[in-house]
Protein 1
Amino acid sequence: MSKKTREAKEGELREIHALESLERLSKRPESRMDVQNLLENLSEHGKIYARHLITSGPSSLLAAAKACKLKVAEIESALTELETKIKLLKS
């Protein structure tokens, strides 16, 4: 019997990557404060979205928008902001 898998929903793979990056950086003692500062310095929508991502895990952009009471475009913008700040932190 084979397991059924589903295709990732829009944004899900990006969310998984962002969350994994945050988790890896948070485990390194020299990066913990940087991660905390990154999260504190996000835009208001970015903070709402990051809180949702960290507590609820990856989901579709539509599901995240509903959970955060934001528009899909606002979630997508918040995800892009988070990805950009993670890249800066890694470099």
Protein 2
Amino acid sequence: MDPAAPTQPKPTQAQRINRAFGPVVAGLIIDFVDLATFGPMGMYLGLPIGACAGYWMGRALGLERKVALLCACAAGIYCMMPGTEMIPIATVVGALARYRESAPKPDAAAPEPRTRS
């Protein structure tokens, strides 16, 4: 380890909890908002409430602001759409994002195959 390299600050307990559960909880919230905005009410309240939850989910996933705004638009439209109330898509997306993030990273420099001369 290089002694001149800057050390990362230790995350707080709240940051660790948000990192672990934030996307799943945000997905649950989006799905509950979708369920709560069932019927004609969803056409009016689904977009703004779902967009707020979608932005939070994007930020909890560590996405940049512009990408989080795209998540907000998608969540708002998802909560506004009829027929999605009983499908927990947002919860599954949050869980899959954390699962995918925990996958082992491939080595940066893979050895080249040897050839006979």
